[in-house]
TrEMBL record:
Stated family: Belongs to the Rieske iron-sulfur protein family.
Transmembrane segments: 12-32
UniProt keyword terms in alphabetical order: 2Fe-2S, Disulfide bond, Electron transport, Iron, Iron-sulfur, Membrane, Metal-binding, Oxidoreductase, Transmembrane, Transmembrane helix, Transport
Role of this protein: Component of the menaquinol:cytochrome c reductase complex. The Rieske protein is a high potential 2Fe-2S protein.
Keyword Phosphoprotein among UniProt keywords: no
GO molecular function (one): oxidoreductase activity, acting on paired donors, with incorporation or reduction of molecular oxygen
Natural source organism: Metasolibacillus meyeri
Domain Rieske: 83-158
Name this polypeptide is given: Menaquinol:cytochrome c reductase iron-sulfur subunit
Quaternary structure and partners: The main subunits of the menaquinol:cytochrome c complex are a Rieske-type iron-sulfur protein (QcrA), a cytochrome b (QcrB) and a cytochrome c (QcrC).
Keyword NAD on entry: no
InterPro entries documented for this protein: Rieske_2Fe-2S (IPR017941), Rieske_2Fe-2S_sf (IPR036922), Rieske_Fe-S_prot (IPR014349), TAT_signal (IPR006311)
Length: 167
C-alpha cells in the first residue's frame, strides 16, 4: 500500500473546499462585476456630438449653439444640455465654451453695450475678447475653453473641451 494514500477525512476536506470555493466564486462574481461595471465601460470622451447647426450658416458673428448628450456618471445616465458660442474666423470654425473662467457663470456675446465686440459675464462684469482671451482687469483669470470641431453632412459636430488655442 502506498504511503501517500489519501484518507477519507482528507478526501472530504479537499472535495468540500473545492465545491465551496466554486459556489462562493459563483455568488461573488456577479457582485464584483456589478461593483466595477463603470470601470469596464468604454469611454466616449473622444466622441463628437452632432448639432443642428449648419456649417454654411455660420458667420463671423458668434451664435449660441446648444446640444444634448448622454452623460454617464458611474451607474447614473442622464441627458445633459450644453452650449457653445460658434463663429467663423477666416476658414476656421471657432467654438467657445460659454462657461466663465471666474466662477462658472454663463457668458454672452455682445450683451454689454459698452463692449459690443466682446463676450460678457454679467455675474461680476467679466469680459473676453472674441477669441476667448480674458480681458485684463476683469475678474476671469483665464481664457474661455474651446471645443474641438468637426463636420458631418454639412452640420457642425462638437468634440471635447480643450484649453483655448486661439488666444
Ligand atoms: S463668474 Fe463670470 S465674472 Fe465672475
Amino acid at each position: 500500500m502506498s504511503k501517500n494514500r489519501v484518507t477519507r477525512r482528507q478526501f472530504l476536506n479537499y472535495t468540500l473546499t473545492g465545491v465551496g470555493g466554486f459556489m462562493a466564486a459563483g455568488m461573488l462574481m456577479p457582485m464584483v462585476r456589478f461593483a466595477i461595471d463603470p470601470v469596464l465601460q468604454t469611454k466616449a470622451d473622444g466622441d463628437f456630438i452632432l448639432t443642428s447647426q449648419k456649417i454654411a450658416d455660420i458667420t463671423e458673428e458668434p451664435v449660441n449653439v446648444s446640444f444634448t448628450f448622454e452623460q454617464v456618471d458611474a451607474w447614473y445616465k442622464s441627458d445633459v444640455t450644453d452650449a457653445a458660442w460658434v463663429y467663423k474666423s477666416g476658414d476656421e470654425i471657432v467654438a467657445l465654451s460659454p462657461v466663465c473662467k471666474h466662477l462658472g457663470c454663463t457668458v454672452n456675446w455682445a450683451s454689454d453695450s459698452a463692449h459690443p465686440d466682446q463676450f460678457y459675464c454679467a455675474c461680476h462684469a467679466g469680459r473676453y475678447e472674441k477669441n476667448g482671451q480674458n480681458v485684463a482687469g476683469t475678474p476671469p483669470l483665464g481664457p474661455l475653453d474651446q471645443y474641438e470641431v468637426a463636420e458631418k453632412d454639412g452640420f457642425l459636430m462638437l468634440g471635447k473641451k480643450i484649453s483655448n488655442t486661439f488666444s
